């Protein structure tokens, strides 16, 4: 498990460097995909780097930018990498820095490793089922052993008032109703906004108590954060059933969910 985790961390950091090169150039090469979501040069460059690392493990890889493997094949996978090479492409285009590289290892439909790296800030979150979850900040050209040595176990903080974190780009009526209900239940309530999977990380590290998401997401959006939250003692459950999210479904869309 440790070797696989280190490979995923190395892949995320190297992919992050490629993303930053393009971020700094301003030449994003934006295209619109069939689902009307944006695609940039950075998505593809990150994807290529990550595949270069993960394919060496001999474990199948399913990525947002190369998700053509049919269910008839992947339903036989007991173990596979699930990747979002650039989570928060809209945040990348807006240049607000709140985008991440997400890498998860799925075993028998549930995440057992999760890595989330934010290239602009150097924030790194990771977790695995054997050791728990951690956060650290990556310095330029820092080696993997040094990165792991500096990490702090999660949860590392706690909020004074009940705190909800919500999407910066995807607020809707269901989310607003959930926030209103929590205000009635909790009285004093604080809300925060962040982009990409950093919202799940805020719950995992203790900066927020809950992250509700009722808008559309895909499995690669949540798998890495799910692992980090889960191994920090949090839950990532369907908003409708209360059951933990599962992965490698025939339809890769997630239901609405709540992290708390």
Structure overview:
By secondary structure, this protein is an alpha+beta fold. The protein contains 8 helices and 14 strands. A hairpin with a 4-residue loop joins strand 6 and strand 7. The model has no long low-confidence stretch (mean pLDDT about 90).
The parts where pLDDT drops under 50 for at least 5 residues are none
The H-and-E topology, N to C, reads as HEEHEHEHEEEEHEEHEHEHEE
CATH topology of the largest domain: Fructose-1,6-Bisphosphatase, Chain A, domain 1
Tell me the total number of β-strands: 14
CATH class category of the largest domain: Alpha Beta
CATH homologous superfamily placement of the largest domain: Fructose-1,6-Bisphosphatase, subunit A, domain 1
Through-space gap between termini: 26 Å
Give the count of helical stretches: 8
* Rg over CA atoms: 17 Å
What would the principal axes of the Cα set say about the shape? globular
- The percentage helix is 25-40%
How many structural domains in the coordinates?
A: 2
Task: Give the second-level CATH assignment, the architecture of the largest domain.
Answer: 2-Layer Sandwich
Sheet with the most strands? 7 strands, mixed
Structural class: alpha+beta
Average per-residue pLDDT, rounded, comes to: 92
Q: How much strand? A: 25-35%
- Order of strands, widest sheet: 3-4-5-6-7-8-9
């Amino acid at each position: 498990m440790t070797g696989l985790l280190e490979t995923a961390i190395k892949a995320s950091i190297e992919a992050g460097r490629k993303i930053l090169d393009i971020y700094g150039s301003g030449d994003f090469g934006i295209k619109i995909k069939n689902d009307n979501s944006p695609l940039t040069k950075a998505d593809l460059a990150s994807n290529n780097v990550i595949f270069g690392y993960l394919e060496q493990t001999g474990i199948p890889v399913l990525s947002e930018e190369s998700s053509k493997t049919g269910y008839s094949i992947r339903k036989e996978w007991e173990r596979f990498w699930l990747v979002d090479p650039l989570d928060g492409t809209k945040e990348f285009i807006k240049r607000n820095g709140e985008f991440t590289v997400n890498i998860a290892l799925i075993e028998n439909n549930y995440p057992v490793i999760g890595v989330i790296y934010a290239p602009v800030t150097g924030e790194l979150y990771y977790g695995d089922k054997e050791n728990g979850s951690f956060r650290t900040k990556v310095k330029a050209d820092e080696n993997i052993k040094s990165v792991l040595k500096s990490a702090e176990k999660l949860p590392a903080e706690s909020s004074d008032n009940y705190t909800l974190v919500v999407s910066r780009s995807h607020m809707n009526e269901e989310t607003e109703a959930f926030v209103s209900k929590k205000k009635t239940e909790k009285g004093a309530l604080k809300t925060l906004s962040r982009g990409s999977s950093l919202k799940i990380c805020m719950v995992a590290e203790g900066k927020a108590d809950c992250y509700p998401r009722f808008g559309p997401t895909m499995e690669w959006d949540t798998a890495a954060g799910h692992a980090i939250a889960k191994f920090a003692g949090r839950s990532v459950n369907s908003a409708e059933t209360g059951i933990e999210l599962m992965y490698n479904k025939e339809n890769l869309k997630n239901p609405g969910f709540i992290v708390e």
